[in-house]
Write a structure and sequence with these properties.
The complex is a heterodimer of chains A (289) and B (63).
Chain A (H helix, E strand, L loop, with lengths): L1 H41 L3 H5 L3 H6 L13 H11 L4 H11 L15 H29 L4 H22 L12 H24 L7 H12 L14 H38 L14
Helix pairs in contact in A: 1-6, 1-10, 4-5, 6-7, 6-10, 7-8, 7-10, 8-9
Chain B lengths: L6 H35 L3 H6 L1 H6 L6
The chains are: A mainly alpha (289), B mainly alpha (63).
Chain lengths: 289, 63
């Protein structure tokens, strides 16, 4: 009974908050990612251009964002691949970048356009439901299910899952130089786990133990996130680098805002669903956070 | 007819209910974390490609 109600409440809250995040992402975040990918395509090895006939060079005007429409992008890959047998490795890397950043060019990936948007919404909503399950479980364990508690749980989730990892590994747009993925994922997990534990100690710890939470929160940052050998973008054109750096600044600002709005909505919606639609059975009288 | 239940029986039952409640809450949290890690960190190409923009947006390490 308990499990069922937590899941139902989390699905309801996650669905709504996920749709809100999906819409914000669609209009504010995804355009920046797509903008960065256009520049990423512009990162063309010169050997590639020399192997392409003049007419196809014109057709592959990578500096023209309008060229990379969802309709012509697949044909674009084929043309590139046919025209550049001599530089296959570079071309394959190029194609991988365009096909949703796969590591294997044969791997499935959503087509740009409606399909990509659909999968972004789907994964966003799933992620929101996952986060809602964690928040509602935390609220049930702590016995605090007021709206204020929901708000605070939302803030804590924002701190643990977005702010703390972002301090070491700022949000990135495609094409940025970064350290090896495994190392970054491990540090991300470390930052999320320690921030959650530390905040838990600060909120629920007794006596002086509570202040140990500050140290726990700081540990991942004392250890430090894995950093790339070189920061920024490995791109030959200075103007493109300047444009990409402007995009990164915008991306960090927008994602910080959008994720903040999302987490607060999610925390509030979790509190609302467990107090209205899917009341948790045998709930003790609600107490403040 | 009266049913006599001792205090210890009640408290045992309450404790087991409390234990069951706790394990259900933990199961829900584990389910939630599994979903989050599947969307955000799963290395399979198909999972990565489908959730690509979501991973970038939520600042999960990508690429």
């Amino acid at each position: 009974m308990f499990f069922r109600n937590i899941v139902f409440a989390a699905v309801a809250a996650g669905l709504l908050a996920g749709i809100i995040l999906g819409i914000l992402q669609h209009f504010q975040v995804t355009p920046i990612i797509l903008g960065a990918e256009v520049y990423e395509v512009a990162d063309e090895p010169s050997s590639l251009a020399s192997g392409v006939a003049p007419s196809s060079t014109e057709a592959h005007d990578h500096n023209n964002p309008a060229h990379h429409t969802p309709e012509n992008i697949s044909g674009h890959f084929k043309a590139l691949k046919q025209n550049t047998d001599a530089s296959t490795p570079a071309t394959d890397a190029h194609i991988q970048e365009h096909q949703g950043h796969s590591h294997d060019p044969e791997a499935w990936g959503p087509e740009d356009g409606a399909e990509r948007t659909f999968f972004t919404f789907l994964s966003t909503i799933l992620m929101a439901i996952g986060f809602a399950l964690v928040i509602i479980s935390g609220m049930s364990l702590s016995g605090a299910n007021s709206i204020k508690a929901g708000f605070l749980w939302g803030l804590a989730g924002y701190a643990a899952f977005f702010l703390a990892p972002s301090l070491g590994l700022p949000p990135e747009i495609p094409g940025m130089e970064a350290a090896a993925l495994e190392g970054r994922q491990s540090w991300w997990l470390l930052a999320v786990t320690f921030t959650a534990l530390g905040l838990g100690l600060l909120a629920f710890g007794k006596g002086t133990l509570r202040w140990g939470g500050l140290l726990v929160v700081a540990i991942p940052h004392i250890l430090g996130a894995p950093q790339p050998e070189m920061h920024g973008f490995a791109h030959p054109d200075a103007n493109t680098i300047a444009a990409l750096e402007a995009l990164v600044d915008q991306f960090v600002m927008i994602t910080t805002l959008v994720n903040g709005v999302f987490w607060i909505c999610l925390g509030l919606l979790c509190a609302i669903t467990i107090n209205t639609l899917f009341k948790l059975p045998n709930e003790e009288p609600s107490s403040a956070a | 007819m009266t049913i006599q239940v001792s205090n210890s029986q009640i408290s045992t039952k309450a404790a087991s209910l409390e234990g069951s409640k706790r394990s259900q809450i933990i199961a829900a949290a584990v389910l939630g974390l599994t979903i989050v890690f599947a969307v955000g960190l799963l290395p399979m190409d198909a999972a990565h490609n489908a959730a690509h923009d979501t991973r970038h947006s939520a600042a999960f390490p990508c690429h």
